[in-house]
Amino acid sequence: MNATMLSEEIKHHPVMLNQILSIISPQHGGTFIDCTFGGGGYSKAILKYSNTKVFAIDRDATIEPYAKSLIKKYPKRFSFYLDKFSNLKEIIELGIKPNAIIFDLGVSSYQLLDNKRGFSFKSKEKLSMQMGINKYSAYEVVNNFDKINLTKIIKILGEEKDGKLIANRIVQYREKKTIETAEELSTIINKAKKNYNNYKKNPATKTFQAIRIFVNHELTELILGLIAATEILVNGGILAVVSFHSLEDKIVKNFFNFYSNLNKNPSRYLPKAENISGFFKTQSKKPLTPTAKEIEKNYSSRSAKLRYVVRNNNNFFYPTEIYQKFENYFKLQELTI
Ligand SMILES: C[S@@+](CC[C@H](N)C(=O)[O-])C[C@H]1O[C@@H](n2cnc3c(N)ncnc32)[C@H](O)[C@@H]1O
User: Fold this and answer.
1) How many angstroms is it from 108 CA to the middle of ligand 1?
2) Does 114 sit in the ligand 1 pocket, CB within 6 Å?
3) Mean pLDDT, the chain, as a whole number?
4) Residue 143 has what pLDDT?
5) DSSP 13
6) Residue 44 CA: which ligand 1 atom is closest?
7) Are the beta carbons of 247 and 104 closer than 8 angstroms?
8) Residues 158-191: pLDDT tens digits?
9) CB environment 36-50: b (16+ within 10 A), e (fewer)
10) Closest C-alpha to ligand 1, atom 4
């Protein structure tokens, strides 16, 4: 697949781009890290300003040709790394002082609308849901995990109250045949949830979210990515995150509050003096959201929430409490097939 094909067949509209640009002010120049390159919407908008440099990361090899076209256009100002953003600290050269680090979480339209990737309910291709650099696919998860572990995944990562019922149906079904496609999986879930009557949403939405998060380790990636970003940000640096569902937003909110001292006791492992001011200034307690105009133009932006903070000069300390608070996600990701 080449870059032109990508942009011609499917279009990804960068979500909340105007708000992001007004927060990070690339017109003043500087160095920016785009942790979720995707269709390159953010990177491209920043690079339009001549005194900027962008380091971009994405785990999806299929968007590499598009990143390469930007390298060709801006050889001195744009670099791309095919990697996971949890490795941010190892990827980014020492000595780089980013003005801002940005995360735009979740899947891109390129991933979601490409039937071969098996993210959408109707895909008749082999179940995958892999963003890239994965240990296993959705096919392996739904066909191999036992009922107890499937229930845990669906309940915790999908916040699906019928997790046990759905896991039961999945296990019953695969006793007769393996679950091959996303369409097959969504039919099994729809049957399990036959009394569900929110007609706006497919009854399989929460389970698909859970399996996708599990396959891509999305929540633990987010926590590790935020920690790495915090460690490399310098005084005055901005950390901005666009999230799309409540589990992600909860992590971002807790993380920002923790380091902004909005939580009562930031770290009981440190002497009080070091705890006094934390090192983030949270700009607003409430997240920013897309304008009505943006939602009208791009319906998939409707659930976006943008939070950002500004780093001060205090020393970095490890967020042990954040690990403890979200320990269940790390434990869940340790499950093996
Ligand atoms: C919503 S899209 C980003 C869209 C981009 N801001 C734009 O304007 O085109 C999210 C991208 O992040 C990537 N991604 C998600 N989790 C990642 C991770 N842990 N490490 C690296 N890339 C990740 C996905 O592969 C996807 O391409």
Assistant:
1) 6
2) no
3) 91
4) 98
5) P
6) 8
7) no
8) 999 999 999 999 999 999 999 999 999 999 999 9
9) bbbbbbbbbbbbebe
10) 38
Residues forming a β-bridge with 282:
309
Contacts of 217 (CB under 8 A, 6+ apart): 333
| Contact of 165 with 124, CB cutoff 8 Å | no
Q: Residue 58: CB within 6 Å of ligand 1? A: yes
Question: pLDDT of 70-99, one tens digit each?
Answer: 999 999 999 999 999 999 999 987 789 999
Q: Residues near 177 by Cβ (< 8 Å), separated by ≥ 6? A: none
CA of 241 relative to ligand 1 center, distance in Å? 12
- CA–centroid distance, residue 169 to ligand 1 (Å): 32
Compute the distance from residue 12 Cα to the ligand 1 centre, in Å: 11
- Residue 118: CB within 6 Å of ligand 1? no
Is residue 162 within 8 Å of residue 193, measured between CB atoms? yes
CA–CA dist 166, 177 (Å, integer): 16
Tokens 């390469």 belong to which residue? Answer: 68
State the DSSP H helix or E strand holding residue 282, giving kind and residue range, or none if neither.
Answer: strand 280-282
Asked if 224 and 103 count as a contact pair (C-beta separation under 8 A), the reply is no
Q: Which two tokens stand for residue 179?
A: 């679950």
Q: Give CA–CA dist 165/188, Å, rounded.
A: 11
Residue 39 Cβ inside 6 Å of ligand 1? The answer reads yes
Q: What are the tokens at 58?
A: 């994405």
Q: What length is written for the chain?
A: 337
Q: Ligand 1 pocket test: which of 12, 21, 36, 221 has the largest number of ligand atoms within 8 Å of its C-beta? A: 36
Of 59, 294, 333, best ligand 1 pocket probe by most atoms within 8 Å of the beta carbon: 59
Please name which of 117, 84, 132, 306 lies closest in space to residue 208, comparing C-alpha atoms. Answer: 117
Specify the amino acid at residue 148.
Answer: I
Asked if residues 282 and 257 have their Cβ atoms less than 8 Å apart, the reply is: yes
Q: Which amino acid is at 321?
A: E
